[in-house]
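Prompt: For my understanding, could you write out one protein's sequence and backbone structure tokens?
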Amino acid sequence: MSLSGFLLRGGLVLAALGALLASPARAQSDEPGCRPEMASYRLPIQRAALAKDEVRLTFIGHATFVIETPGGVKAATDYNDYVRPPGIPDIATMNKAHSTHYSNRPDPGIKQLLRGWDPAGAGPARHDVTLGDMRVRNVPTNIRSYSGSTDFDGNSMFVFEIGDLCIAHLGHLHHPLEPGHLRALGRVDIVLFPVDGSYTLDQEGMLDVLKSLQAKVMIPMHFFGGGTLNRFLARSQDLWPIERRDSPEIVLSKATLPAKPTIIVLPGH
């Protein structure tokens, strides 16, 4: 190889390496195992229309789901700059516990951007909005601050009401639920809950939360690899049936909910 050819090849290699290191996909999060690469999932081009009593849930990854109504309204949970759903959601909820749960640059096309905390620090966030056939409201919770103290009303559980279904996303829940939280949540048919057991509530505490909610469908999220998820499932197997699905999408209706509470595991991306 000539000297000029050698230099040209070396330059290309260095350029490629520089592009890789500079890519936003290499950004680091303050939670382990949560990287922008998780947002690689693309929705199918052709998807069946939802019946009037159905809801489609898609697990994008980490704590982000897309919730879709029969009327075409889409909400993204814990919308952030690392794990992004495809397209622009109509509604986006956020929590501030870590940067993988909120966005500093949300898409301006989002119609309703709901922060689970009051940015002014004046008290709990209060949301109760209806867009098309979806109602979204929040139930404030406390979180641990970086100093180890309690950040009162620093996050929220978000409740999505579509037709006869009630879906609760527990967000970055750090503590057991008190009677007041349970009253505010109301009847929950589907619960999306974190299982990491360290950054959020410990796994035994989360089991108690699930027992108190008695939701018919329980979908785990916020797990860092299969080991964490499997530890939680091992603790749960004597309490509820466990179903593992091959698709990150699931369509549910009041009529198709299981007869007894069931954990349904969706593959993350």
In short: The radius of gyration is 20 Å. DSSP finds four helices and 14 strands in the chain.
